[in-house]
Amino acid sequence: MKPDQLNYCLIDIPVYVDARGQIVPIEECSTIPFRIARSYHIVGTPVDLRRGDHAHKTLRQFVIAVAGSCGVCLDDGESKISMTLTRPDQGLLIEPLVWHTMHSFSKECVLLVLADQPYDESDYIRDYNDFLQWIRS
Length: 137
Ligand code: TYD
Fold this sequence. Notes:
mainly beta, six-stranded antiparallel beta sheet, five-stranded antiparallel beta sheet, 7% helix, globular, binds thymidine-5'-diphosphate
């Protein structure tokens, strides 16, 4: 686990390799620090379009490029960081109140997201100025 000033973590997922290929298991409350309430995956995003562009009030998410790659920008209102997710055996833990944007999806990208809560629109902060107000209040 590699913590940073920003509230995120890159977590290596164990890989079991043999002649048949690789198995990359993720266990709740073990590989990742929460119980999984929801999974979704993002596919087919054109390379010039973005997803995300929001923060969550309470949701925790774990994001893995299980195929292909994509760029991620994180912003907590004070610090920003950009990275590229390229590995099916490493995921990005995005904590609440971190503005996140995914971009530059490769054609074959499959971005798997595990979340600790069901979908709830009221948990989203979709306006950046609202986000800045939230983190300062
Ligand atoms: P949204 O979270 O806005 O996608 P992104 O942040 O990647 O742009 O979701 C887009 C639509 O999909 C929105 O109408 C809600 C729906 N949705 C669900 O119904 N369940 C989910 O788990 C997610 C993530 C989205």
